[in-house]
Design a protein that fits this description.
Layout lengths: L1 H25 L7 H24 L3 H24 L10
Length: 94
């Protein structure tokens, strides 16, 4: 089951990264560079692997849920900062 979850994580990351790639073929509104795909791939894969680590190491179900939600919330905050700059860091998007 453990290796099956890793394959599922990798598949989901790949499918999520296909979304902007396909959108770029039909519209000019989506304009990702290779660097954008790399950064988002690292963020998604890192989030998935940290959640997998939590599922393997933490035994109590409520703690698993809380920790995975915290990791996902961190992903969303980083994503928003990179996209539109909600915190105003130098890494903020335009």
């Amino acid at each position: 089951m453990k290796n099956k979850r890793l394959v599922i994580i990798l598949s989901i990351v790949g499918l999520l990264l296909l979304t902007p790639l396909i959108a770029m073929q039909f519209t000019t509104e989506v304009n990702w560079s290779a660097f954008d795909f790399l950064i988002m791939g690292i963020l998604l894969l890192g989030t998935g692997l940290v959640c997998e680590l939590i599922l393997r190491r933490v035994t109590e179900t409520p703690n698993r849920i809380i920790l995975c939600l915290a990791v996902i919330a961190a992903l969303v905050l980083v994503w928003m900062e990179l996209a539109v700059g909600i915190f105003g860091t130098p890494f903020a998007g335009s």
